[in-house]
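Lecture notes, part 5. Sequence design as translation. It can be helpful to think of inverse folding as translation between two languages: the language of shapes and the language of residues. The source text, in structure tokens, appears below.
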């Protein structure tokens, strides 16, 4: 959903077909413009979903409530009062029965940007006003991830912060730039100030620093050990070489484990996004990431995976989730608490023509073994990506959302239910 945005803008659609086992439902309705960068959260109390997305044309965030069986309710609602940009993140609060949505914006101009959170009711309406999470002169605050900790009834927002490179008259810092966290109460008010979780700096090579905007990460609240598990890529040199790392913080955001290297070697400089699934029964994880190590100047690559134990250490070998020599990326993961398996969702250039990408899925056991072959969630006749997925235990199915290119200036958001294996 994030790494392929620029690619999608250049594509044109031909036709559309539904997902693997359910007819697709149009979520964005009559909203005009480039709708994409989707996110979704499950409301376990009401058996509903909140689907959110960014309209890049209008620079607004929309949301819509969908029933557990996939029926869209009402109309899309604008939930951002500030100029918004991708990516966004949504967390569901089971105590208050509402959501918290996080996004970033260039409110302070291109030399610095800001992250906001906004409460959204179970009905999909805004509650209160947006609250500023992070800002700063000549500081780039990017890629927010919001999680809800039901044990303590708090949210944690995770993001990357860096000063502009000194060549841009910025204030880059090797000791204070990196991953940051800030906590928010159940009612959306800030609970303390921001804190540095882990400095993610790297050395200058040929007077060039690669900004942290190339860094992708995802986090999960692990109730079993009362920790936040974080999977990130880490740029290890100025040429953009990366490695995949797992770390964990306690419930206060203090680093207590890692970073532990997950991948065998290094991954190429196009390998931005990571996915992390949490086994809510055992506390183990499935780590996934893009691997463009074999890129050699082309857009081909792999989706790789590795199971992790409850402490975040590798518990199995690194394997290919998807490796066909085609362009692919942006893995996201959901866990089936009934069967004990994962679903990895990603985009791939299935027809290998460089003009159309599709959303695909791959079932994986908790031990990291593939279940059958990958399958199409969308057709190969269109360009679809910028996807998200969640598992719904009430109906024992996955719910996936994605963006579809319907024309040069029109992207639509669709959804479908997927039966597990």
């Amino acid at each position: 959903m994030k790494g392929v945005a620029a690619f999608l803008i250049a594509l044109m659609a031909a036709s559309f077909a539904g997902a693997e086992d359910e007819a697709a439902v149009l979520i964005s309705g009559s909203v005009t413009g480039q709708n994409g960068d989707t996110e979704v959260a499950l409301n376990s109390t009401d058996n509903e979903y909140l689907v959110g997305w960014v309209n890049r044309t209008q620079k607004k965030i929309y949301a819509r409530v969908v029933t557990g069986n996939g029926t869209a309710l009402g109309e899309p609602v604008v939930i951002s009062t500030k100029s918004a940009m991708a990516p966004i993140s949504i967390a569901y609060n089971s105590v208050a029965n509402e959501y918290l949505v996080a996004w970033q914006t260039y409110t302070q101009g291109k030399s610095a940007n800001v992250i906001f959170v906004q409460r959204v009711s179970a009905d999909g309406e805004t509650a209160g006003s947006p609250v500023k999470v992070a800002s700063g002169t000549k500081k780039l605050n990017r890629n927010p991830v919001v999680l809800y900790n039901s044990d303590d009834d708090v949210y944690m927002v995770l993001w990357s912060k860096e000063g502009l490179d000194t060549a841009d008259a910025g204030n880059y810092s090797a000791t204070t730039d990196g991953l940051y966290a800030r906590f928010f109460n159940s009612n959306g008010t800030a609970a303390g100030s921001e804190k540095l979780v882990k400095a993610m700096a790297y050395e200058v090579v040929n007077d060039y620093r690669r900004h942290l905007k190339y860094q992708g990460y995802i986090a999960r609240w692990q109730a079993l050990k009362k920790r936040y598990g974080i999977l990130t890529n880490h740029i290890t040199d100025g040429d953009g070489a990366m490695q995949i790392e797992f770390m964990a913080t306690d419930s206060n955001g203090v680093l207590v484990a890692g970073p532990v290297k997950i991948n065998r070697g290094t991954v190429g400089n196009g390998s931005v996004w990571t996915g992390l699934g949490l086994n809510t029964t055992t506390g183990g994880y499935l780590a996934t990431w893009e691997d463009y190590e074999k890129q050699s100047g082309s857009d081909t690559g792999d989706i790789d995976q590795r199971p992790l134990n409850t402490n975040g250490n590798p518990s199995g070998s690194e394997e290919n989730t998807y490796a066909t020599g085609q362009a692919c990326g942006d893995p996201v993961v959901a866990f089936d608490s009934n069967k004990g398996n994962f679903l990895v969702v990603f985009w791939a250039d299935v027809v290998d023509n460089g003009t159309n990408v599709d959303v695909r899925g791959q079932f994986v056991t908790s031990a990291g073994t593939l279940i059958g072959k990958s399958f199409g969630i969308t057709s190969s006749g269109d360009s679809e990506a910028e996807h998200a997925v969640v598992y719904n235990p009430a109906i024992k199915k996955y719910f996936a959302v994605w963006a579809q290119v319907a024309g040069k200036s029109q992207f639509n958001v669709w959804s479908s239910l997927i039966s597990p294996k």
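The translated text above is only one of many valid answers, since several sequences can fold into similar shapes. Residues 3-19 have pLDDT under 50 and may be disordered.
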